[in-house]
Structure formats: structure tokens, C-alpha cells
Amino acid sequence: MEPNDGKAEPSNGAAELSPEKPATVWARRLIIAAFWLVVVCLGLPHWIWTTSIQRSDLPLESMNAWAEGKACQLHYPLHVGLTAPDLAPEHATSLASDLETLLNGQQNFRFHKFHIQTEHNSDGTLKPKQVLNVILNTVSAPKTPQATLQSWGPILNAEHQVGRPEDLKQTATFLANQISNIFEDESAAIWHLLKDTAYANGVRPLTLSPEKSSALDRRMTRAFKYAPAYHLTFSMFTPGAAPSAWDIDQALGEYISPLLRPLSSISDFTIDTQVQLFASFSPSIAGPAFNAEKNHWTLHYGDLTGFVNAAEWPLSPSIGEGPTINFVLYVPSPDKRPLLIDENDGSSWIIPQWGGVQIHNAPSTQPNNLTLDDLRPDMLIFADQLAGLLGVPPSPSSLSLRMSSLKRERATALILSASSTLGALSRLTLKLTSIAIPDSVAKSVDETLHRLDQACTNLREGQFQLALENARIAETEVEKAFFEPSMVGQVYFPEEHKVAVYVPLLGPMAVPLIMSGIKELKKLRERKQKAA
């Protein structure tokens, strides 16, 4: 044993760790790699699959083309038949050619083009695609030219003397003025629909008078939006116990059904009726006031909007498949008759996009039942109100021609609505990249584009009924696509919400894996440096 010289050996302050065995290092690396392998190969794909948003491809170029009015140039060919049995065939052909040139040269038609077709030995019925038939009498015609439009049929009976072939020019001018007057209001209405849209680009503006523009605004504002079906409700309200019955079924068959029959080609209609006794006025209005100067009871114009007591009167807006159009017949009590509007002494008014109201000022003795004769003036008012609420043009005098014009106007409005919604859907999908676009939306958009193409083709070919049907389907499909529930549910789900949801779940698991991986990489680099 060597003696201790009293000197202490130097110490590092800590015992050195023995080097790790290679098997231990490889085991640790395999464990870390296994965790990362599970995360990368299983966890990450599963997370991406469960959180990914399905976005079907949409034909954005076609959608924007319709929204910008580039996919279709709206065009309305009007085929008019000309029957002149007293003229020689060559003179009738010359008259038709002159008439077509004059009509298409007029300045008040922007989207219409007339086609005049001569007919021989015609019975007045329309041929396919024809919208009007002109029957010209030149033999027994008076000196003063005359023209009469049938009230129910699309037939114009004209009388004009043609003594020499040179008189055909005057006849053509006369007929051109008559036909122009028939379709002038329709041309103004369609221009009013299109003037603020891309479909009017490149078209020379049509100048309308302030009165005409105001009348078109009122007509389109109070009319219901087009629907494939409407429900009509006719209600009688009275503040007392009488009248308790009315011959409404006969009245509807006499005055309303003749109007609904031609309208059935545009929309379907269902009807119900009801009687409400002891119906009080709405508390929001002051009620009738007696006007001693006029010797009748009056309602102020400001009280008309609150006349209907929606809280107590059983008027449901959701009866039937489509919108409900309400018609209210109010029978005042005997001590408050006659009841009229103070400003104009009228007894009826229209509530835009809701219905119409008519005050029935019966005789002083209150009948228990309103007969068909009693209801005749009221039903005529209701028929006019129904036409206004459905957007039926007020002219021309022929109901058939007014229905034909309504088809073209409705088809135009539906094409505009569907095109606008396509543009909105395109902008929505580009702006909000986080919303889902399911396959059902893509199918609806494809169907919409197909139907719009068909509607445009139908319009250009003069098949206005088919154009209306295709435009109606297109508008329905695009509305279904735009309001798809799976899309609407994610519109207001920003990315910050996703971070707030996933960080608390993935953070505690990700930090140890990342730190262990970084630490192992550092050790690997140190070993390589020592070996070098």
C-alpha cells in the first residue's frame, strides 16, 4: 500500500455516464420512427379525409356567361297570319311583305321581330307559332278604315278599301299601326325588365315616358313573383251575424273560372272559401268616420294598409302548394253604410303581393245570404284584382293576347332570375373556398344550364310555352343549388374555428413527438461529428 502524500485527486463534480449501447440507441430510434410512421401514414391521411371538404367542379365559365348576358341574345319572333280573301294571291303576298318591312322598321320594338304569313281561306284559327291573325276585308269596307280586336280571341278584323294596287301601301301602313299598337305595351314591359341588365348591352335604349315607367313599376311591384302554383282564398267578413252565407261557388264559376282557364297554361290554381262572423277591425286603425258633407262613412287612405286584422282574421298565408292570394269581401254593419274610401270614394284596393279587399255596401236591410246578383260587382272587382296580382298586362283588349304577352314576360323574368342566381353562386364558390359543393349542386347547375339553353332556343323559335316551362325548371333547379343545406351550413365557419378545435386535441400529442425527433436528430449529428 502506497503512502498517501495528502494530495487529493482532481474531480469533475459528476460521474461520467457510460456510453449507450448500440442496441439501445436503435431501439429508441425505432420507437420514435414507429410513432412518426403511424402519424404520417395513418393519422394524417385519416385526418385529411375526415376534415376535407367536397367541392365538385362547377362550369364557372358558362355560369358567368349567363350572368353577364353573353350566353343568350333574347329574341321574340312574332308570327302574324294575314288573311285577305278578296285580294289576289300576288297582291296578298306583296301586302304581307310591305307590312313586315314596316313593322320591323319601327323604333319602338327592340327585341321583337315580326313575320307576316299569308293565309288563304282561313277560318280565323291560329296556325302553329302564330300569335295573331289579321282578317282583312277589302270589298265591303267603309271609306274610313276600321279595325276591331276580338275580346277573347287573338283575331284582328280590319276593313280597308283597296281599289288599285297602289292602295296596298296605305293598307300596309294602316295595318302596321294597328298591330304596333297591340304589341307596344309588351315591348315596353320587356324593355323595362331588361334595361338594367346585361341583356340590354348593345341594344339601343327605348325611351319611355315617366307615366309609362311609373305604371310599369306599379304593375310589377304589386304582382306576385312567378310560381308554378297559386292558392286563392275568398273570404267574407262581417262585424255582425249576417250575412252568414253567400253563393260563392256560382260566382266563382261565372266570373273567376273564365280567367283561370287561360291562366292554367302558365300556373296551377286551387281555391277555397270561408265566412267569418263578428269580425272586428284591426286595433291599429281608427275605424270608419262619418262624413256629414258626403253623407256616408269613410276610411282614410292611411288606414287601408292596416284594415285587415291579421291577428284575429283567419287568413293563413301558407295554405296550398304555392303562394296564397287573399280576396276579402267585407260587409259593413247596416249602421255604417255606405262605407267608402275618403280620398276617392272607392270601395276596393289591392295590397301588393298579398291580395285584394272589396267593401260590399249592401242595401239597408241586411240579407242572410248574398246571391249571385249581389256578388256580381264584387266578383268583377276580384277578377281585375287577380289579373293585376298575377301580372297580367292591362292591354290589349284581347284576353288571349294578354296571356300570350304574360308568357313572354314571365319567361323573360325567370331567365333573368336564374341567370342572376347562377352568377351569385359562381361568386360565392370563388370567394368562400371553405364551403362544400356536393354533387347534387353540380347536377342542379348542369340542369339549369341545359334548361336555360332550351328556353333561349324556344324563344328564338317562337315556342313561348316551352320557353316558359324550361325557364321555370331552370329557376327551380338553380334556387335548389344555391340554398343547398350542406353549403349554407358552412358559409359562416372560418378557419380560426378549425384551429381552435384541433389545437387542444393535437397539441399535447404533437409536442412530445416533435421534441423527441429533434433531440434524436441532434444526437445523430453529434455522433457523426465525433466520428469525423
Automatic annotation (TrEMBL):
The chain crosses the membrane at residues 30-49. It is a multi-pass membrane protein. GO terms for biological process: attachment of GPI anchor to protein; GPI anchor biosynthetic process. One of its GO terms (cellular component) is GPI-anchor transamidase complex. InterPro entries: PtdIno-glycan_biosynth_class_S. It is found in: Endoplasmic reticulum membrane. The keyword Glycoprotein applies. Pathway: Glycolipid biosynthesis; glycosylphosphatidylinositol-anchor biosynthesis. Keywords: Endoplasmic reticulum, Glycoprotein, GPI-anchor biosynthesis, Membrane, Transmembrane, Transmembrane helix. Pfam families: PIG-S. Belongs to the PIGS family. This is GPI transamidase component PIG-S. It comes from Zasmidium cellare ATCC 36951.
